[in-house]
Amino acid sequence: QKEVEQNSGPLSVPEGAIASLNCTYSDRGSQSFFWYRQYSGKSPELIMSIYSNGDKEDGRFTAQLNKASQYVSLLIRDSQPSDSATYLCAVISGGYQKVTFGIGTKLQVIP
Amino acid sequence: DTGVSQNPRHKITKRGQNVTFRCDPISEHNRLYWYRQTLGQGPEFLTYFQNEAQLEKSRLLSDRFSAERPKGSFSTLEIQRTEQGDSAMYLCASSLVATQTRQYFGPGTRLTVT
């Protein structure tokens, strides 16, 4: 079992719709959870972080965390073509704060 | 804050050669991470420094790979006797201990081994 699992996609949504990206993790002791956006050929860019159960909203982005289910998600409202990218879920666990990334979900927003 | 910088941005080398990459973190950041990313995969953790101490090294990192951060500032990643399977993007990230987790990534070094 991979430590952080994501569907690689592509996930296609029409412009203006809500995109829902999901991630599960295996280490129950994981402490911190992140969503990064990565455009092709570029390095990852942090867009959301979440540390406790529940929802966290920032503009059009909402991160949701459910530690009991070991599940974290990212919702993108009013999706724009510029949101088309790969979204990486990252989880931090362990004493040395090791960061483990998922494979990433490719999002395509269709104009 | 000039961001994390990496040099070179691209490196093409022949199999069997040694290569060295450099990462300059954000100046006040005391944590520095190296990752490797291949096409269609997420970044894969290689190693991590807090100041000059190398605190963790991935089991995936063979003996051909070595990293240093001699003065707790910039870091180098060396790959000896490169193999075609080493072709990847090598990413460096830095963070502050206080924030622990927010990592700032550099632009990466793309290595191609021919």
Notes on the structure:
The complex is a heterodimer of chains A (111) and B (114). Chain A is built from no helices and eleven strands. Chain A has strands at 4-5, 11-14, 19-25, 32-38, 45-50, 54-58, 61-66, 71-76, 85-93, 98-101, 105-110. In chain A, strand 4 (32-38) and strand 5 (45-50) form a beta hairpin. Chain A is globular, with a radius of gyration of 13 Å. Chain B has 114 residues and is an all-beta fold. Chain B is built from no helices and eleven strands. In chain B, strands 2, 4, 5, 6, 9, 10 and 11 form a seven-stranded mixed sheet that branches. The mean pLDDT of chain B is 91. Chain A binds chain B through residues 4, 6, 8, 32, 34, 42-46, 49, 88, 90, 92, 96-104, and chain B through 31, 33, 35, 40-45, 48, 55-56, 91, 100-108.
Strand content of chain A: over 45%
> How would you sum up the global shape of chain B?
globular
Helix share bin of chain B = under 10%
Record field, number of beta strands of chain A: 11
Low-confidence region ranges of chain B: none
End-to-end separation of chain B in angstroms reads 36 Å
